[in-house]
Request: fold
Amino acid sequence: MIFGVDIGGTTIKIGLVDNLKIIDKYEIPTKKDSLIKDICESLRNYMKEHNIEKIEGIGFGVPGNVINNYIYNLPNIGLKNIDLEKEVYKYFPNVVVKAQNDANAAVLGETLYHREYQNACMITLGTGVGCGIVLDGKVLEGRHGVAGEIGHMPIAEEYNFACTCGLKGCLETVASATGVVRLADFHRSSFRTALPYKFSAKDVFDLAKKNDQLCLEVIDKVSYYLAKCIAILAITVDVDVYYIGGGVSKAGSILIEGIKKHYAKLSHYAVKNVKIEAASLLNDAGMLGAAGLI
Ligand SMILES: [Zn+2]
Reply:
């Protein structure tokens, strides 16, 4: 049995995984000052309560960049430079420890779940835009640990909004939850709308489903930029399937259908038939993928 640990900004999801299936799961709060200690103590307690004597390993999905199990930066939690193996060995001296960026863990989780595809990308739309790439069943890390950081692909130059990374016109500035809000504000004066002046990305999607002109325009733009990004990915990594996950993706078919419509026009003829679909594991992909690292 393996523990899959998905560390988030506010909660840590922990799954007990056997034969690549989550057989039990629970959550604990994320505390900056005792992050690894809390996780390890909770795992030890869980094992004691459930009479589990031995586990094969602990896999981690972390919201930041990690190379060779060394966590360099967790910007949303405010932690840097954690030697994960060293910290975990204090509690579990002989266990195998593996870690990956959370987007990478999530896409690995989806490929473990959908066994038929061993080549996949998962685009996560949340506060930012993340992406994990799995090729031949293995996560693509890259030389600097940023393979698949498509949120900073400079493809929205028409708007040229400033990005948190210091560049301008990144995909994330128009396709994240904040990007959706930014686009709606930008186009507000040109379209009729029932959108209040204080609103969220979810409001934009909800009103688009009611044919609100401004919101439909915004979703069309978001879909266009995501399709453009997938068209670029398709002739770069050429995978079987592109999963769309994360909070913004809860908008459902209106977004997926919009992406497909634009992708049909933007994509190279050899990759027209790729699958673009909603991620199916919702909150469990990160845990399963983290366990799959072992
Ligand atoms: Zn950027």
In short: Residues 152, 163, 165, 167, 170, 172 surround zinc ion (CB under 6 Å).
